[in-house]
Structures are given as structure tokens and as C-alpha cells.
Amino acid sequence: MHRVMSKHLLCATLGALAALLSMSVLSCERSRSSGGIVRDSSGIRLVQLSAQDIDQAPVLVLSAEPDIVIGDVDGDSMSVLFRIVDAAAISAGEVAVLLPHEVRVFSRQSGFVRRFGRQGEGPGEFAYASSLAILGDSILVLDEGLQRFSVFTQEGGLVRSFQIAPPMRNPRLAGVLGEGALLLLDDHYSRPERGYEMFYTHVSKHDMEGQRIDSLSLQPLAEFGQLQSVDIITTKTFGALMATAGHPGGYWQVPGPPEVSLRGGDGELRVITRWDGGSLRVSEAAVKQHIDVLVAAAKAEHRARRRSELEETAVANTYPATFRAIASSEGDLWAEEFQPFTSKRPRRWLVFDATGHLRSRVTLPAALEPFEVTRTYVLGKLVDEDGIERVVKYSLSYASN
């Protein structure tokens, strides 16, 4: 979800910033502050964190039980949720839940309230809705399939629609800037001619009519390669994937190494934070375990082919330090420390503020995908062991020492 004071998640690798860090050491003024060593170089704030800084960061904890649970198995059909795409808290204690072809609104007190949208290409319809944003009293929905935004009242009335211009290959909404502009991502990739090739994410700013105002940056996304035995294009096993998360003041980018960067709404680099990520070397044993888990999850008749595909896929030399990312309405970045997606262990997230300092750390259940985070709650999709999807909202508080 995104809002005008908002967040988001998603994808790639950062390259040339490491050079900025290394060149700055000779000519910067150093000062010790809370959460690491701070340097300033040519208007870019550089923060270096140690492993101790990470371990001593304040801890945020979830409430023992969620404040809101949306989704049922045996209730009315509107309360049964499948393929949840996004969700956001709206006014009067309601929550809007985005599915591929409609929006359903629920309240804590009475459950399902209303729905709007349907499958199609006409006004107020969706081919494939992929993102939800709250704009004051309105709800903005991106239809990735139609490359179209639709603006609704919170009651579900269609206000207007507008196309993305110029057209994109794979449009994604990264956030809404404080000036009211849309921050869009477009991943540029094609079939590699040989081996693995780096593909890129284009970050651009658009007005509320969908027109591109400015191209902000072009960043490495991930290395893609084609398997020779089957017609599949894939990333490397444990390969890095850059996440870009927009908020009112600009956008965060989270590459594979233990590093995050903050850019302003004009695309200019403002902050780089790096930390000691420890040993990230990928072992042969870890690769074997990863393949065995995925093969075991496949149907018996597909396991031999699945193993062949996985064994043919190239493996990254090191794990990425981070995976998903999401920005809060306060401008904070939540960056998830990497774990193989086959792992069921809880996920630790590092929370950075807009100065690049580590504000806190928080552990979320492995099955919880956050859609909206603030300094007081997290709202997201929770999938249980039976594959049942629900939207939940947990309160956040600092752990007592």
C-alpha cells in the first residue's frame, strides 16, 4: 500500500555507490553519533554501523495478538480472501483490501462492509490490480495490466481514471511523494543472449494525470539468465534483488550488500548507510538444502525436472544482506534481513530513519508480508499453514529493558 505520507515495498542491486563511500573517507569530517559513525561528503550523508550498533538498537515488538483480523474460512463469501495483493487502513477504522479484480472494505466492528471494481477493461474495472494508495479521502489503484490508475472515493465511487504515459513495460507503484507526484518503477529486462546479464529498474516521477515529469534514476535490478534445458529466465539462486520504497520525501533503495541509500524526490542521493553484515558466503550445503526443500514441495511427477532446473541455475557467491523493503508514512525504511524463502524462521527487519541512523529492529513472523508500517503498527497479509490468507494489524511498542 502507498499513501501520501506513505510506504512501499520492492526490487534490485546497487552498484556505483560503493565508490562514493571509499573516495569520501579521505576528505570527510567525522563525528560520532548515536547509531554509528557519520561522515558528510559533497552533500551526501554517510553512516557506518558496526555489528554492535545493530545488536544494541532498540527493539520493537508486536502486540501479543493482532488488533484486527480480516478473512475467514467458514464465513460469508466476501470474508474469504484469496490472492490478496495489497491493503491499507482508511478512515473510520476501516481497512481496504485489494484483490486482483476488486477492492473489499472491512471494519473491525462489522466485518465486510462493501466492495467495488470487477474484472474487465471498462471504467472502474481491473485487468490486474497491483497496488493501492490512499490519497486523502480517495483510494488510488494501479492496474498493471491496463497501465491505468483509477481514483475512487472511499465509498467506492469512481472519480476518474488516467493512463501511464509514456507506456511502460512492467509498471509498479513505489510510492507517492509529498508534492503529490507518483513514483513509478519500470523493470527493463529481456532474454539474455548468453550467461547471466544485469538488468535495470528505471525510477520516474509522474503527475496525477499519469504523465512523466522526470526520469530520476536507472539502477541495477538483478542478474537474469536463461536455462538451457528449458525455456525459463531466472535470477541466480540467492541472487540480490534491489528493493525501492517511496515515501513523501523521496525514495529508499536497498541493494544486495549491507547498505541502504536515500534519494530525494529529485533523484539526488542524500544518504548512504552501510553496516557490518558478517559472513554472507553461500555454502554448498546451504544450496543442497535449498534445492532439496523445493524439490520435496513439487508434485512427485515433476520432481526430477524441478531438480534438474534448480541444479542448472547459477548460484550467487554470497547471500544478499537484505531482501524486501517498505517505507513508512514517517519516512522510515524497514529493510528485511535476508533469509532463504524456504526458511520458516521469523524475519528480522532493520528500521532506519531519514538521517540514515538505525532507529530500531523488529522481528515479524515469516508468514507475514507487511503492506503498511508506521511507528505504532504494522498491517499486512498473514498466510497460515493451510494456505488461508488473512489481513492482520498488530500494534508496535518498544521492548522494556
Short characterization:
The protein has 401 residues and is mostly beta strands.
Structure description:
The chain has helices at 17-24, 51-55, 284-297, 303-312; strands at 2-3, 29-33, 36-41, 44-49, 59-62, 68-70, 86-89, 94-99, 102-107, 111-116, 129-135, 138-143, 148-153, 158-163, 171-176, 182-188, 196-206, 212-226, 233-235, 243-247, 250-254, 259-264, 269-275, 322-327, 333-337, 347-352, 358-364, 368-373, 377-383, 389-398. With 401 residues, it is mainly beta. Strands 5, 6, 24, 25, 26, 27, 28, 29 and 30 form a nine-stranded mixed beta sheet that branches. A seven-stranded mixed beta sheet has the order 2-3-4-23-22-21-20. Strand 12 and strand 13 form a beta hairpin. The longest helix is centred in the last third of the chain and has 14 residues, at 284-297.
Strand residue percentage: over 45%
CATH homologous superfamily classification of the largest domain: TolB, C-terminal domain
Count of DSSP strands = 30
Q: Give the overall average pLDDT.
A: 88
What is the name of the CATH architecture of the largest domain? 6 Propeller
Query: What structural class do helix, strand and pairing data support?
Result: mainly beta
List segments where confidence is low: pLDDT < 50 over at least 5 consecutive residues.
Answer: 3-34
Query: What gross morphology would you assign?
Result: globular
